[in-house]
């Protein structure tokens, strides 16, 4: 089961990262909090590159699996600010065009954090 969860999260990271770089770039820009002092496109592109790299590390760097898991968990915590920003600012993106839809989405990020930590722990 741990292998399946790791594979699913790695696939999600790679898919989302590629989406940041290509077909979902505008939607992801909408999530960048306006209080960040960096260009939203830069944030989207750089986080997309990081997501692809993290997904690949999770798939192929088995020797450091636990460390990679903690790094991914930290990344998920950081990008959760974008999800919160989308909810609190009422931003429509990814088909999340109501407060209820944006609210329903929020618990999935903590589940990803729990899932990555559980699936990469040593025992």
List the uncertain runs: none
How many structural domains does the protein architecture include? 1
Secondary-structure element order, N to C: HHHHHH
Count of extended strands: 0
As a whole number of angstroms, the C-alpha radius of gyration is 15 Å
What is the general shape?
A: globular
Description:
The chain has 123 residues and is an all-alpha fold. The chain has one domain. It contains six helices and no strands. Helix 2 crosses helix 3. The protein is globular, with a radius of gyration of 15 Å. The two termini are 13 Å apart.
Features:
123 residues, 76% helix, 6 helices, mainly alpha, globular
Which helices and strands, and how do they pair?
Elements: H1 2-21, H2 25-31, H3 40-60, H4 65-89, H5 99-105, H6 108-120
Helix pairs in contact: 1-3, 1-6, 2-3, 4-5, 4-6
Task: Characterize this entry briefly.
With 123 residues, this protein is mostly helical. Helices cover 76% and strands 0% of the residues. The longest helix is centred in the middle third of the chain and has 25 residues, at 65-89.
């Amino acid at each position: 089961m741990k292998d399946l969860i790791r594979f699913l999260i790695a696939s999600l990271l790679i898919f989302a990262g590629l989406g940041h770089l290509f077909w979902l770039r505008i939607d992801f820009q909408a999530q960048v909090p306006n209080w960040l002092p960096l260009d939203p496109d830069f944030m989207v592109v750089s986080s997309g590159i990081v997501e692809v790299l993290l997904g690949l590390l999770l798939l192929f760097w088995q020797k450091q699996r636990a460390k990679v898991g903690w790094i991914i968990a930290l990344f998920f915590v950081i990008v959760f600010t974008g999800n919160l920003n989308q909810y609190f600012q009422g931003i429509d993106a990814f088909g999340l065009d109501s407060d209820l839809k944006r609210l329903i989405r929020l618990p999935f990020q903590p589940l990803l954090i729990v899932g990555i930590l559980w699936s990469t722990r040593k025992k």
